[in-house]
Structures are given as structure tokens and as C-alpha cells.
Amino acid sequence: MIVKDLFCIIEKEVKGHDENQSVPVFIIFDMLTDSKIGFMKKNIQSNKLNKASADISSGNMKIEAQDYQGAINDYTELINLDKNNADAYYNRGIANDKLKNYQNAIDDYTEAIKIDDKDVDAYNNRGIIYYDLKKYQKAMDDYHTAIKYDSNNVKAYFNIALVKEDTGDYHGAIECYDKVIEIDSNYTEAYINRRLILDKLYDNKRMLDEYFEENSIEDNYDEVGVS
Question: Is 115:84 a contact under the CB 8 Å cutoff?
């Protein structure tokens, strides 16, 4: 807002005054000050939004360029501007994970979830870190929460299968891989992992064929490019 605009406002406000009666200086001063403060507040807010947008864009580009520490710095600046920016915490979690700052990454995903408790990607990513740290129950809790909010979350089912496989629950893992394939028939890793488990459990082709027939499952293992 320029000075000319301010005086136009003042002119409208004092229109009811007697033309021979002077407007007190303090009224004009107050009106100018209020207008200036309002303008400054809008300016500050606009600058913050522009800075936030720049920080998130810069951080994203740095992640793509594998400059993870630089990305962390950008997201931290953004968080300092806006403590409720779930995306900033989530993306900083990714960068921390890449640098193997696992506890920092867990903390960032946790903050993102506090802001948006239905963020299935944050649950999945935090669960993967717990899985890597062999904290299997915490990982499973996060994966199941992701499924609670997205019943067809193929990543969560796949990750549950990995936990079950690592903990020796092979039949449970197979069931999860079946679910993954049911949701996404092009999920190559699910076919591969399922077949590797089946090869452990069934020692000849006839037994494998019987398993697939009994469970009404099509084995597309050979169709996913694995010999």
C-alpha cells in the first residue's frame, strides 16, 4: 500500500467531519500507524510463505542431488518458520535416514505423524527403520497402522512379509506376499520372495504345483524375468 492509498482511506474516514473543523493530529497518526502495521504484517506473512516455499523446493532438489545434509539444513529452516509443517519433518526424516541418522529420522517421522496422524508414508518409513534396527514389533505396529488408514497399502503388506520372513513365520510371509500380488500383480519382488520361501518349504515341483492349486494361486514367477 502506497502513501496515496493511505490518505484516500483517511479522507473517507473523516468525511463526516465539519469542513471547518480540523481533524486532530493524533487521529491521523493513529490511522496511518494502524494501516502501516497491517501492511507490515501482510508483508511479513507473505515473506514467510515465500521463504517456506523456497526452503521446501531447495530441500527437495538437494535430496535428489544426494546432498542430504544440505537438505536437512533447508528443512530445518522451514521448520523454524513453521513448526506445523508435516512435509518438512517427513522430508527431513528421509534425509536423516539416508545419512543413517536413524534416531533423528525416527523423531522426524514421529513429528510428522503428530501433525498428520493418517500419514501412511511416515508410518511405513518409520517402520522400515525399526525393521532395520531389528525392532520388529515396533515395525509391525507402524505397518499395521498404515494399513488401518489405507487397506490396500501394498508397501505395508510387503514390509510385514519381510518381518514375518525374518522371524521365521514363513507361511505368514507367504500370505502377505499373496496379498501384495493381489493388490499389484506387477510387484516383481513379491513373486521372487514368495518363490524363494516356497522353495525352502517344498522340495520338488509337484509339491509346489499342489500348493498353488490348493490355494487357487497363479505362479507368475517365470513371467517376472527370473530364471
Answer: yes
Give the Cα separation of 101 and 138 in Å (integer).
Answer: 18
* Residue 99 within a domain: yes
Give me the residue label for grid cell 532438489. 61
Whether residue 182 lies inside any domain: the answer is no
- In tens, the pLDDT along 83-134 reads 999 999 999 999 999 999 999 999 999 999 999 999 999 999 999 999 999 9
Residue 184, judged by CB atoms within 10 A of its CB (0-12, 13-18, 19+), counts as middle
Q: Are the beta carbons of 129 and 136 closer than 8 angstroms? A: no
Count of structural domains, the chain: 1
Neighbours of 186 (CB within 10 A): 9
Q: Tell whether 105 is covered by a domain.
A: yes
CATH number of domain containing 50? 1.25.40.10
Domain residue limits at 33: 25-117
pTM for the structure as a whole: 0.71
Question: Quick one: CA torsion of 194, 200, 201, 206, rounded to 10 degrees?
Answer: 90
